[in-house]
Amino acid sequence: MTTNSSVLSVRGLRTEFLASDKTWFPVVNGVDLEVAPGETLAVVGESGCGKSMLAHSVLRLLPKKISRLRDGQVLLGDQDLTALSDVKMRQVRGNDISMVFQEPMTSLNPLMTVGDQIAESILEHEDISIADAKRRSVELMDLVGISEPAVRAHHYPFQLSGGLRQRIVIAIALACRPKVLIADEPTTALDVTIQAQVLRLIDDLKTEIGMGVILITHDLGVVAEWAQRVMIMYAGRKVEEADAETFFQGPAHPYSRALLGSVPRPDAQIDSGEFAPLVEIPGTVPPLDKLGPGCAFADRCVYRTADCTQAVPDFVKVAPGRGVACINAGDLS
Ligand SMILES: Nc1ncnc2c1ncn2[C@@H]1O[C@H](COP(=O)(O)OP(=O)(O)OP(=O)(O)O)[C@@H](O)[C@H]1O
Known about the structure:
It is a peripheral membrane protein. It comes from Roseovarius spongiae. The protein is an alpha/beta fold. The protein folds into two domains: 8-96 and 178-331, Rossmann fold; 108-172, no CATH class. Helices cover 29% and strands 23% of the residues. The two termini are 40 Å apart.
């Protein structure tokens, strides 16, 4: 069972990929998470840290043959999604859990008008007439910021810009009023103004229908504005979790600190009125199939000590809703 306050509960999730030498290596490694109704949990980390694979594992959309869900539970209410048949899992997807991917074309049918695609999604989940579903699809298009929705409802995906297509995908994802929405960089293709509109839309609906949101993003500005809780991933593992306010006041993991140092912040304004330059984190995320025995961040960490390369640090809960996986976290200045 999920806890009373959670709509989705992930326990000890481990997903593996097949390396070129035919051995399996973890890309999601023992991850736990909880999402409450009406809450946005931001999942943050550099490219290749396993954020998308975490989302794909929850939805059981992993590429077959080269990847496998090795361990763990994904609890939606009292249902463990890892134990469902493929048929049952298809009913859960797009009904109880929806996902918005980075690339909208992967989610749209090129041979159907966008209005019909939204209406079809509504009809799958609600007992209303086709005419009402079409009317609702136009309303949803309006809601996600598409001008002239009644006209554009008759367009095919290829006739719309990338940004408009992404808004259609979001309309489809929200049409069934899911319990959980997983949004993987949902606004990457959109300009900043539209990005804020779309995030506000997700936020409004989240509050209105008590949906839990997992928001995967590289953008800490987006996290600060829209997320209540933050989970930082590095090399397939959860390295820090905190409520957003606590996190921004004082991130506990050296990686989180480095990430926060790498974004321009209004409070970092320097005297000339310019923003302080970005601080890059030296090095890159190591290949996940070649990780050593210690902390995967050790090579890039300014707080590294000899012990860091001995063993992978445990994720330790330091306060309710707060945890960190760093043996030196308590001593960072
Ligand atoms: N198709 C694939 N084949 C082999 N390995 C893969 C594949 N997709 C992902 N991986 C492995 O999974 C790891 C995590 O990838 P994932 O896409 O989850 O990262 P991410 O944090 O979502 O990055 P991004 O922000 O760029 O989307 C990669 O570093 C890689 O080792």
